[in-house]
Amino acid sequence: MIKYLGSKRNLVPALGTIATAAGAHTALDLFSGTTRVAQEFKRRGIFTTACDLASYSYQLARTYIETDADTVDYDALRAHLLAMSSLDSKEGYFTETFCRQARFFQPHNGARIDACREYLVPLTDDPLFPILLTSLMEAADRVDSTTGIQMAYLKKWAPRSYNQLELRLPKLLPGKGQALHGDALNLVNQVPAVDLAYLDPPYNQHRYFTNYHIWETLVRWDSPETYGVARKRVDARGDQHRSAFNSKRTMAQSFFSLLGRVRAKTIVVSYNDEAWINEDEMINAISKAGFARVKKFSFSQRRYVGAKIGIYDPRGNKVGKPGADRNIENVFVGGEKATLSKISTALAP
Predict the structure, then answer these.
(1) What's the sign of the alpha-carbon dihedral 315, 33, 308, 329?
(2) Structural domain boundaries enclosing 23
(3) CA 314, CA 96: separation in Å to the nearest integer?
(4) Burial class (CB in 10 A: 0-12, 13-18, 19+), 91
(5) pTM
(6) Which residues pair with 199 in a beta bridge?
(7) DSSP classification of residue 39
(8) In terms of domains, do 269 and 284 share one?
(9) Dihedrals φ, ψ of 97, to 5°?
(10) Which residues does 149 contact at the CB level (< 8 Å), separation at least 6?
(11) How far apart are CA 282 and CA 294, in angstroms?
(12) What is the DSSP string of 235-299?
């Protein structure tokens, strides 16, 4: 999976345990990001709907959640990956923007990314398209030169950036699921009632649209105008891609409204100790949303790699000291008393 701020990689086993203990057969992940949590639900045999506003997240969900590994034409898939791996390098928009105007990737890899992405253009309507695009995105992530977000690149090339781009077959999961693309505040009204809903909203003012603008452009392949040292998409300047969850003024009200509209027997909310909503407010909001009981479980979790390295400006110069390398992830579960009792037992050491 791609490097991702706010990734729940270390929390995934516990969230999977919660879903199983709750007896869930259907689940909803309204802020699916890289789909790590949604994948864990699907891996446990739960029909999962993964939703996100980001275009790249939607393609990841189409690959890992919506695609049934048992129905994939692997001969055709491997043939496409081999063909893409054999393409001649071809410098284009990606190389010029992210390798020469900026330094996110070395030009030899940028030219290969350009060639591979152009190869995929005629395959947009092919069921293998999201899988092939995911393979390319993950290959690019393995040779980038960042601390994990795309607001800045390192001043000196990261050692991995010298490696050759390598396309790999994504590890697909058997079973069915659903991928939806859009704002959680709208999608929540379209999704049927589920056994368990998982909510992991943004915690602060930093937008994923700008933190991962390169993936957004790689997926859309729309050659947008860019600005700044990081060559961000010019449409990131407007309000079109601003979320109510990235504003301290609107976040709480929007989230509480979302809670009240989720149709689920059990609700699970992960929210860390650096967030804008405190523990009492969260418990009260879940209770008001109609869930009989609420219980909190806390987990110590490593922060993303940038917290260890320090803070860098868009040119890759170090401008801040490393912060704490761990934080507390609070998981709030709302549901029936008997369900919470089963979950507590399942999570007990």
Answers:
(1) positive
(2) 1-68+174-206+244-349
(3) 17
(4) middle
(5) 0.89
(6) 269
(7) H
(8) yes
(9) -80, -50
(10) 5, 211, 212, 304, 306
(11) 10
(12) GGGSSTT--GGG-TTTHHHHHHHHHHH--EEEEEEEEETTSSS-HHHHHHHHHHTT-SEEEEEEE
Q: Are residues 8 and 118 in the same domain?
A: no
Residue 276 has pLDDT above 70, yes or no: yes
Query: What mean pLDDT comes out for the span 158-163?
Result: 97
DSSP label at residue 89: P
Q: Residue 270 CB: number of other CB atoms within 10 A?
A: 24
What residues pair up with 300 in beta bridges, in sequence order?
328
Return phi, psi of residue 296, to 5°.
Answer: -110, 135
Q: What percentage of the chain exceeds 90 in pLDDT?
A: 70
CA pair distance 22, 161, nearest whole angstrom: 43
Helix (H, G, I), strand (E, B) or coil at 187: helix
Largest distance between two CA atoms of the chain = 61
Both tokens of 77, joined, read: 């898939």
Residues 182 and 304 in one domain: yes
Q: Look at residues 136, 100, 131, 105 and name the one whose alpha carbon lies nearest to residue 118.
A: 136
Reported as a pLDDT band with limits 50, 70 and 90, residue 30 is: very high
| Structural domain total, the chain | 2
Residue 315 has a pLDDT of: 54
